[in-house]
Design goal:
The complex is a heterotrimer of chains A (about 260), B (about 350) and C (about 375). Chain A contains 10 helices and 10 strands. Chain A is an alpha/beta fold and about 260 residues long. Chain A folds into 2 domains: about 160 residues, 3-Layer(aba) Sandwich (Rossmann fold); about 80 residues, no CATH class. In chain A, strand 7, helix 7 and strand 8 form a beta-alpha-beta unit. Chain A starts with a strand and ends in a 7-residue tail after the last helix. Chain B has about 350 residues and is mainly alpha-helical. Chain B is globular. With about 375 residues, chain C is mainly α. Chain C has 2 domains: about 300 residues, ABC transporter involved in vitamin B12 uptake, BtuC (Orthogonal Bundle); about 50 residues, no CATH class. Helix content of chain C is about 70%, strand content about 5%. In chain C, strands 1-4 form a two-stranded antiparallel sheet. Chain C has a two-stranded antiparallel ribbon with strand order 2-3. Chain C starts with a helix and ends in a 15-residue tail after the last helix. Classes of the chains: A alpha/beta (about 260), B mainly alpha (about 350), C mainly alpha (about 375). The interface between B and C is large, with 52 and 60 residues. Chain B: One of its GO terms (molecular function) is branched-chain amino acid transmembrane transporter activity. Chain B: One of its GO terms (cellular component) is plasma membrane. Chain B: It is found in: Cell membrane. Chain B: Its main location: membrane.
């Protein structure tokens, strides 16, 4: 972890009609860290993701990535500039094979298009091979290479979750955003996933992790940001956050709720 | 009925056996197999003369080679093009007849109505213009989702037809006659009597289109299309420039449709707005989905079925359309993914990895 | 043209446009309801409308014994008889169209939802046997006998096929709908007494000018059509918003899976949706015959396309949108034909649709039941 700010989520407000999903949230992500983003259900974690990756245009505020403003970029441009994500509810290309899924991600960095593909130029063939090799490598890294040519929809749940990560990694991101990657996992699988995420970080990626399982986040995050009702209520090292009374209140429910 | 099922299973295992045998053959054997198949296709006009099984394919009432060209080739071309749009990229296009009409009309205008270019020069222009029209229509509309796109494209098909019907410049309802024919090459004469040369030309065009589309399908482009079909939002978030690839799909589909139209115009020599009714778009779509949307062999099969079956069974001409409608429902109920459903292409993995090795085998 | 004529023509066009728009709107309701619940373009809905016009025709000529002409005059009725007759014809058309829509759902869509039942199996088996029989003999009576004999064994095997419970891809629904649409229209074209020619419907309502407004004669049939359409829409809105079944329809439209888990009988709701759409189409069909006095086997196709356009224009899945879209389309077509000539009517309609969708990609009022995407 360095002190270089990779992503600056600056004073973002997001409103849907009359509902405010995020209210003046500011988050900084430093290069090389694992930042945990936690909060109770409906706190605005996924909205945060959606603003970062361009799914939503924020009502107010900016998102700076690597020093440039990406708020107005199209979704695929944001991906190409180096942010990749996974989805909380798995969204693979279900009719495509596992390796093809990952190749779609890898293709984000390629340029050959219709004419090159028609003519099968040398560059196009090199790119195809690179995409394929890189994808197989990533599948191996995730430990799912044995099912590379199975349709994504036929893969077991755990494989699908990891395939999502492989597909995101294939876009060669600097920042990898994982949206509840451990959802539905048992403790042993969670443990495995934790190690995998640490391994990914050690390869030089910066990771933003959404979880609402506190234990997972606390174990691997370098820093933790807590959202509640669309506001940032705490930020800091895991143990600081764990002891923060606001956070405890948010998770256990505040007594004056009853009033 | 259960006997029928058993019979079907036997047939299927026989088929699988042939397939396995095919895979075990050497490269030379396989290549000569392909060559034989291609030769057989070029000899198709004589199939009805094969003793014993010829009557199976023959079309009572219409000359077989006329059916081959005017119906089968046209429908196969169109199904191939529409398959890119609907089957691969998942864009529901109900106005595909519009591109087919554009191709035919460009040839008509350039070879007869307003100029007298040779057909062979008009052909590439027709394809390019169709493509351009695809881009012009696609640019504003491809932002729309699924069913909105369907109704807009349907409207587009109608706009093309009505414009052709009401613009004197395009011959209005009289249509365009004396359209230029392909140039004769040696003994291959493109006249009015013998449809065989047109069929051979059309078949060559089909091979060309299949070759090109296959290359696109097996590349980054094909993956982008499939990803868009499966989940457009996820595709875009994985870095696919969805708009660009949708537009390309539309343009390529349009180009193939235009090619079919140009070929048709060159053969029949006369076109009028009545050749391009809205119902034809629906027939085209039916061909693609009936055969197996998203799967090239499926689309080809669908095109052949929709074109040839009605000609084969002429003894109930008056009820053909009725039977067609019922058949569509039945096929969709029992084979909702079409007669030849698309399969997950496990091949991609193998082909790319063994690029060099295959030759060595 | 003098000014007063322009004004008069304008209001003339407005009145006829609204009348035509009412019919579009009523048919559009069927598209919108089914689309809202199943996300399906019910392509065969246009034929339900067509069947409705024939129901109205049969009801008036066969059941009420009204001839096309009486002593060289239209068979006008007046007073209570007229009202009674009109109501009877209306209900007949609504009933047959409603039943037709429900049967359509059972035969052509439900099996695709992986939920086929005996009714669908028997109907499909009958059709299969009929088609197979045609290969050998083309004589209606013989075909019917073959079909009846073949139904039993084939339907037995179809029921077993049905037990898969797998949902077909969306395109399959559309093609099945197109097939059903083609088959229904053709069946009427083949076996109807006038075959493919036009049919006249008896004109029992004397089309008197009811009142003059803004320099225009407002004919009574136009008023009936517009008021009738508004009444039917109001009734439908009340049904959807106030009754238990209506609540079910809205729940399934929003999220079928959740609705199922919460105990909503989704199959029943789908039947209700199709029935409602059919009833509205039947009403539209009766009103159509009232104004235009005619029908034909292929009358549904273009009208269906237009009505679906109207539904999209207003915002598909949105009941008020269907009304707005219908009126707007009717008016645009009328004004457009006056300005550019009747042959450009459809072009103008589609260009307006395109422009509206460019500005508002989900129609003027939007998809009321639209879900958040991503």
């Amino acid at each position: 972890m360095t002190n270089e700010v990779l992503l600056d989520f600056n004073n973002v407000t997001m409103q849907f009609g009359g509902v405010t999903a995020l209210s003046e949230v500011s988050v900084k992500i430093f290069r090389g860290e694992i930042l945990g983003l936690i909060g109770p259900n409906g706190a605005g974690k996924t909205t945060c993701f959606n603003v970062m990756t361009g799914v939503y245009q924020p009502t107010q505020g900016t998102v700076m990535f690597n020093g440039s403003d990406i708020t107005k970029l199209k979704r695929y441009e944001i991906t190409q500039s180096g942010i990749a994500r996974t989805f909380q509810n798995i969204r693979l290309f279900s009719e495509m094979t596992a390796v093809e899924n990952v190749m779609v991600g890898a293709d984000a960095r390629k340029t050959s298009s219709i004419p090159a593909s028609l003519l099968r130029t040398k560059r196009q063939r090199t790119e195809e091979k690179e995409s394929y090799d890189r994808s197989m490598e990533l599948l191996a890294l995730m430990g799912i290479a044995d099912r590379a040519s199975d349709a994504a929809r036929n893969l077991p749940y755990g494989y699908q979750r990891r395939l999502e990560i492989a597909r995101a990694l294939a876009t060669e991101p600097e920042l990898l955003c994982l949206d509840e990657p451990a959802a539905g996992f048992n403790p042993a699988e969670k443990q495995e996933l934790n190690e995998l995420i640490l391994k990914i970080r050690d390869q030089g990626y910066t990771v933003l992790l959404i979880e609402h399982d506190m234990n997972v986040v606390m174990k691997i995050s370098d820093r933790v940001t807590v959202l509640d009702f669309g506001r940032k209520i705490a930020e800091g090292l895991p143990q600081e956050v764990r002891e923060n009374p606001d956070v405890i209140a948010a998770y256990l429910g505040v007594p004056d709720d009853a009033a | 009925m259960s006997q029928l099922l058993i019979l079907w299973k036997r047939f299927y295992s026989l088929f699988a056996g042939v397939q396995a045998h095919w895979k075990s053959m050497s490269r030379v054997q396989r290549l000569s197999g392909y060559a034989l198949a291609v030769l057989a296709l070029y000899l198709a006009p004589w199939w009805p003369k094969i003793p014993g099984i010829g009557w199976l394919v023959n079309t009572p009432g219409t000359q077989f080679s006329t059916v081959l060209n005017d119906q089968v080739i046209i429908f196969v071309l169109v199904a191939l093009g529409l398959n890119v749009v609907v089957g691969l990229a998942g864009l529901l296009d109900l106005g595909y007849v519009g591109f087919y009409a554009v191709g035919a009309y460009v040839v008509g205008v350039l070879t007869s109505q307003h100029a007298s270019l040779p057909w062979i020069v008009a052909l590439p222009i027709a394809v390019l213009v169709s493509m351009l029209v695809g881009v012009i229509l696609g640019t504003p509309t491809l932002r729309l989702r699924g069913d909105y796109l369907a109704i807009v494209t349907l409207g587009f098909g109608e706009i093309i037809r009505i414009s052709a019907k009401n613009l004197d410049w395009l011959g209005a309802s009289r249509g365009i006659s004396d359209i230029g024919k392909p140039p004769s090459i040696g003994p291959l004469k493109f006249g009015v009597i013998d449809p065989k040369p047109y069929y051979w030309l059309g078949l060559t065009l089909v091979f060309l289109v299949v070759f090109c589309l296959y290359r696109l399908e097996e590349s980054r482009v094909g993956r982008a299309w499939t990803a868009i079909r499966e989940d457009e939002d996820a595709a875009e978030l994985m870095g696919v420039n969805t708009f660009k690839f949708k537009l390309w799909a539309f343009a390529i589909g349009a180009a193939v449709g235009g090619l079919a139209g140009a070929h048709y115009a060159g053969k029949v020599g006369f076109i009028s707005p009545d050749n391009f009714p809205l119902q034809l778009s629906i027939l085209f779509l039916a061909a693609v989905v009936l055969g197996g949307s998203g799967n090239m062999p499926g689309a080809i099969l669908g095109g052949i079925m929709v074109a040839w079956l009605p000609e084969r069974f002429r003894n109930f001409t008056d009820k053909r359309v009725l039977v067609f409608g019922i058949a569509l429902v039945l096929v969709m109920v029992f084979r909702p993914e079409g007669l030849l459903p698309r399969r997950v292409r496990t091949k991609t993995a193998m082909r790319t990895s063994s690029d060099g090795k295959e030759v060595a085998q | 043209m003098p000014d007063w004529l322009i004004v008069r023509t304008f209001w003339d066009l407005t009145v006829t446009g609204l009348a035509l728009g009412s019919i579009y709107a009523l048919v559009a309701l069927g598209y919108t309801l089914v689309y809202g619940v199943l996300r399906l373009i019910n392509f065969a809905h246009s034929e339900i409308f067509m069947v409705g016009t024939f129901s109205a025709l049969i009801a008036s000529t066969q059941f009420l014994n009204i001839p096309l002409l009486e002593d060289g005059n239209y068979p006008y009725r007046a007073g209570g008889t007229l009202v009674l007759f009109l109501v009877f014809i209306l209900f007949a058309a609504m009933f047959i169209s409603g039943v037709g829509a429900v049967a359509l759902e059972r035969i052509a869509y439900r099996p695709l939802r992986g939920n086929g039942d005996a009714f669908g199996a028997i109907a499909l088996a009958f059709l299969t046997a009929f088609v197979l029989g045609l290969i050998f003999v083309n004589e209606t009576k013989a075909n019917l006998i073959i079909a009846c004999v073949g139904t039993a064994p084939i339907s037995y095997s179809y029921i077993r096929f049905f037990k898969k419970g797998k949902k077909a891809p969306r395109l399959a629904f559309l093609i099945s709908a197109i097939g059903a649409s083609t088959a229904i229209a053709e069946a009427v074209g083949i076996w109807g007494p006038n075959r493919r020619e036009q049919y006249q419907t008896p004109r029992i309502l004397e089309k008197k000018v009811l009142f003059k407004a803004l320099g225009t004669d407002v004919r009574v049939d136009y008023v009936i059509v517009i008021v009738g359409a508004l009444l039917m829409l109001t009734a439908l809105t009340l049904f959807v918003n106030k009754t238990k079944l209506g609540r079910g329809v809205r729940a399934v439209a929003q999220d079928a899976e959740t609705a199922r888990i919460l105990g909503v009988n989704v199959d029943l709701i789908i039947v209700v949706t199709f029935a409602l759409g059919g009833v509205m189409a039947g009403g539209a069909a009766m009103l159509f015959t009232l104004v235009y006095d005619q029908s034909r086997f292929n009358i549904g196709f273009i009208l269906g396309v237009k009505s679906f356009t109207a539904a999209v224009l207003g915002g598909i899945g949105n009941l008020k949108g269907a009304l707005l879209g219908g009126f707007m389309l009717g008016l645009v077509e009328n004004y457009g034909s006056a300005l550019f000539g009747g042959q450009w009517k459809d072009v103008i309609a589609f260009v307006v649709l395109l422009v509206v969708l460019m500005v508002r990609p989900t129609g003027i009022l939007g998809e009321s039941l639209g879900r958040a995407r991503v």
